[in-house]
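Thread title: Can someone regenerate the structure for this chain?

I was given the following input by a collaborator and told the matching structure tokens would be attached. They weren't. Posting the sequence so someone can regenerate them.
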Amino acid sequence: MITVKGLKKAFVDNKYVLDGIDCEVTQGEKIVIVGASGSGKSTFLRCLNLLEFPTSGEIYLDGELITDPKCNVNHIRQKMGMVFQHFNLFQHLNVLGNITLAPVHLKIMTAAKAKEKALELLSAVGLADRIESYPSQLSGGQKQRIAIVRALAMNPEVMLFDEPTSALDPEMVGEVLGVMKQLADDGMTMIVVTHEMSFAKEVATRALFIDEGKIEYDAPPDDFFTNPQNARLRDFLSRVL
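Best answer:
Regenerated them for you:
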């Protein structure tokens, strides 16, 4: 589904945040990415859906070279739902408005169909009763579940999660992880940057360790977490597990 070749990203100081990423993601995989702060994990996700444009390298989605300047970026982003650390909900719109804005504006669905889809997704995450609420009336966990629903309303092929629980109070983390686990069980292709190691062990089909802009280790979760053949990863896990 996704192929990344020689991905590099440098910012204004010419320091490479990503320094030669090669990776393939097949349909249905659940890939968890871990690493220290500043290692390039979030930048990698943002490059995948072109929120950050790579300095060099190639990214293919369904065989299409999406790093080609002639590529339709909005079309690509419809295929990749993204959930951020902070919820980024529109404060002046209620829950229904937040979820239906993009599919209606982009003429993917009629307003009636988008509302029907929103109700279906909200019911699945236990928030159908909050459809008329505004973000200021929701808890952090509810906002993040709405953010997930908003991404799913576009019928994406893959979901990208950038530390989706890091801004939540501890008691709210479980309700968001529960939605993500259900997505995984339903077969959604997922790439997740997270510090939630128990979630990573339970859900991942592969785990990647990114350090200083490179993928230093790529393995199934059993090998990754119990017997990693990488000294830097062993040191990292000793501090977070």
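Residues 170-185 form the longest helix (16 residues).
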